[in-house]
Amino acid sequence: MTVETEPQLAIFGSSPAFAEPLHVGRPNVGDRAAIMARIEGILDRNWLTNDGPLVREFEDAVARLHGVRHCVAMCNGTIALEIAIRALGLTGEVIVPAFTFVATAHALQWQEITPVFCDVDPATHNIDVGRIEELITPRTSGILAVHLWGRPCNVERLEDIARLRNLGLLFDAAHAFGASHNGVMIGNFGDAEVLSFHATKVLNSFEGGAVLTNNDDLASRMKLMRNFGFVGVDSVGYVGTNGKMTEVCAAMGLASLESFDMFLAANQVNYDAYASTLAGLTGIELVRYDGADRRSRHYVVVEVGDDCPLTRDELWKVLVSENVLARRYFFPGVHRMEPYRSFFPHARLLVPQTARLAERVLTLPTGASVGVDDIGVVAGILRRAIAASDQVHRCLAEVGIEADVSYSGTVAQASR
């Protein structure tokens, strides 16, 4: 693909910088031959699902990587959350951050458990441990925290609160595959931690999820629950559902594991390129991955500050018009989505940092399919937009920030 290093802005009538959309979360695909060889084996065995050999191999490999006793693979991360919540016996109310993907709250609400929204720490974007105890009521049964961007929560303080208050502690670790905290791999904290292998994650299994735990009884319950509660050929001993991972998904997961170091290396190169090319841009602050712990750097996140000449939404519209499909994670905050907006109309008063971040955060494309040259173009677009902020502001004021934005691959240009 040939692109200009200093593209003209599409909102002013130029052609988009990218002929094809540059996505956040385009799937990482490793060795295709390794994937296809495993799929051929599946067809030869004629064993497509129901705890097949590749699922068990994948579970063992993920458990070894994370240093945990049990990995219970599931069909997706949301079902994994729901099963973990039910297996832990959570009821009533569960405290959860408001700044997260909506599935974190849905996994509770789907089971008629009330998500109680907690604000986040403005520095880490993770749940504010200093606000949790004031939200605990006699109906509180647990805490569901999120390792946002793959940067672990303050797990020590969370474990202290859970132990003191006799609460279940579950982590949504959808962003944190392969990450560690103070030298300990994710999966070893709380009662359990839930992974996602969705296509957009650093490691994908086409679609899938898993629960990591060192609790033998909990793992046994979840294995029953993901298979309708069957304890034998004709015996059901537990209320369950169909949460099983298929063999073809495990095949993709195993092949992805073999390419995982390559994915991490690509993310590191891309992150460093963003850090270099975005340096000096007024009001653009890159979320950092500091320290010696393992991080995938699969999320390149910037905060657009008050000193930036353009708002986050104006920069977002500029990028989308150039076919750079940046995302406003997690706008507008789960507490402002339905049904939570109707259930808890005053929640916004309790989560000011969530509201602030929801208006500032922008996630940029990375992954194995994004190159350093692409990143240079993205940075050039931002630099050019900021330099021409007065014209950009006037142009977007005429058409409206939300006008003509598409994530389907077709981006309409806004003209002056």
Please describe the topology of this protein.
Elements: E1 22-23, H1 32-45, H2 53-66, E2 70-74, H3 77-87, E3 93-97, H4 102-109, E4 114-118, E5 140-146, H5 155-165, E6 168-172, E7 180-181, E8 184-185, E9 192-196, E10 209-213, H6 216-225, H7 247-258, H8 260-278, E11 284-286, E12 300-304, H9 312-321, E13 324-325, H10 340-343, H11 352-358, E14 361-364, H12 372-387, H13 389-399
Parallel strand pairs: 1-13, 3-4, 3-5, 5-6, 6-9
Antiparallel strand pairs: 2-10, 7-8, 9-10, 11-12, 12-14
Would you mind describing this structure in some detail?
The structure is a single chain. The chain is an alpha/beta fold. The protein has two domains: 10-27 and 260-326 and 365-399, Alpha-Beta Complex (Aspartate Aminotransferase, domain 1); 32-258, 3-Layer(aba) Sandwich (Aspartate Aminotransferase, domain 2), CATH 3.40.640.10. It has helices spanning 32-45, 53-66, 77-87, 102-109, 155-165, 216-225, 247-258, 260-278, 312-321, 340-343, 352-358, 372-387, 389-399, and strands at 22-23, 70-74, 93-97, 114-118, 140-146, 168-172, 180-181, 184-185, 192-196, 209-213, 284-286, 300-304, 324-325, 361-364. The strands form four sheets. The protein has a seven-stranded mixed β-sheet, with helices on both faces. It has a three-stranded antiparallel β-sheet with strand order 11-12-14, covered by helices on one side. Strand 3, helix 4 (102-109) and strand 4 form a beta-alpha-beta unit. The longest helix is centred in the middle third of the chain and has 19 residues, at 260-278. It is globular and about 70 Å long.
